[in-house]
Structure formats: C-alpha cells, structure tokens
Design brief:
11 helices; 318 residues; 10 strands; Arc Repressor Mutant, subunit A; D-Maltodextrin-Binding Protein, domain 2; alpha/beta; 8-stranded mixed beta sheet; 21% strand; 42% helix; two-stranded parallel sheet
Amino acid sequence: MDLKQLQALQAIADHGSFSGAAVALSTVQSNISTRIKALEHELDVVLVDRASGHLTPIGDMVVRRARRINTEINAMVDDVVALSSTVTGVVRLGMIGTTGRWLVPALFAELHDRHREVRLHVLEGTNSTLEAQVAAGQLDLAIVNVPVQSSGLDTFPLFTEELVIVCPNDSALALAHRDGAEKSGYRPVPLSELATLELLLPLSGTTLRDQIEHFVAPSGIKLNPVIELEGIRMLASLAFDGYGPAILPASAIPNHLHSSFAAISLEGKPARTVGVALKRRGFPSAPTRVTVDALKLVITSSEALPDGIAPIAVTASL
C-alpha cells in the first residue's frame, strides 16, 4: 500500500470516475486503474464498482481513512516548512453564512499582514455540513454555532451574538415597538408576544433552534413557525422578501438593508455562541494554528465588530 493508491481512491470518490480521477491527479486513466487494482489486492476487497464507477461500502470506509492520512501528511509538510522559514500553506476553512460575511474580510486582512503566505480556501455551509466535513478531514477547521452535535470534534467559543427579530421597518410589528428613546429605536419584544407571531425559524433540532427553544422554555411559550430552514442566510432572505418576521443573529442584516429592516431585541436578550471546531484526533498544521490565532485577534482586537456581538476571552491553545 502506498500514498498514490490512497490518493487515487480519494480522487475517484471526489470526481466520480476513473477518468475524472486521472484528470485531477494529472495522470492517465490506466495509472489510476493500476493503483486501485494493487490496493484492492493488498486489502483483498473490491473498493470500486467498475460498472458504476462508484465506491463500494468498503471503499467508502477506506477513503474516509485515506482522507485523514492525507490531511496529516499535508500538515506534516506544512509544519516542516514553517520550522525552517515563514508559515506557508493552504487552510480549508468552513464558515456559517451570516458570520462569514463580516468575519472573512477581517480574517483575510489579518493573515495578509502577519502570514501572507497562508492562503484560505473558504467554504460556506450550515452546522451539519461543516461539522461532517471537519470530522472527515475535508476541512481543517470551521466557524460554527456551538455546542456542536458531532462527538469527533473539539470546540472553543469566540463570541456571542444577540438573537433578534428581523422584519421590515414599516411592518406592523416594527411600528408597534418603535421608540425613539431606545438606543436601537425599538422597544424589546416581550416573550409572551412571540406566541402570537407566525415566525421564520431555524430548523428544529439544529443548534441555533435548540438555543432559541431553551431560552423561551421557562416562560412556557410555544413558538409558531410558518417556515423552518437550516440555512440562516436563506432564512434571512425569506424575511427580506416579506415572508414574515424571523428570529436571526443580529449580523444577519447586511449593511445595505439597515435602512429598510429592523433588528428588534427580544426580552432578556437571548444570544447564540459561535466558535471554532477542529477534528479531535490529529494535530493541526502550522497554517491552521496561525489562522486560529488570527481569528482570536480579529474578534478580541477589532473596534468594528457588528452590533450585537460580544467577544469571549479565549484561553484555548493549539
């Protein structure tokens, strides 16, 4: 068994065929076929169904292990380079959407100033997709709602973000709570009023929905969702398109919509916690470690964090 065989199997999984794997690895299809045959002979199993070009169940299991091996090898190379020169390499970073809009530009600027040889590959997603990709080694780390549901990840918090009701500023809800004496321009919405509203809410069972339900549970309030979605950016888009008020993180309203939409606090000011998730097993590469350090600096040192976000003192080290 050698690394080229494992790389060939991973490429077939990623690109769906022997020919696609050959293109991705800059070789010919016969080389891919030879590597897979040798790996199958070594393990005495069939890894790829030749009729469909898809991996067998055993092939799926092997490729999951192969991804972890390749991730560790890439991290080892990055660390060796970092010890002898500047930190260089690619960091595959997952990011929940509403956070990515304001955090990614600040993170790019921080890395450019301190470690300009580190390149970010950023993937936007939901908690469930990002957690799975970090656990599988497809991402080096992710910024997600915490706590996470995957047992294979370690996390630490970065900041809390107030949850608010988002609605047009000329809607009945906004007009009923408008108050020029308040800093935000609106009086907070009492929890008892939530039971009377048809809301756009995060999908039941997601981390953010669990946080909302946990907050309202002591009051005995039963929420009335008209739409439930996992993707926060899609949920925000529906609110902006007039499908109803939504409970969302404060940063869900982009700057160009602040004049048209209200972010009204809820009584008690519930908040979500956002943090970093990394794979529990394995040691992060040097580029990943400096990216985590840059994230901490952006959150704790920035004077221009969006409204509703409060940094958390991070003591975790890698």
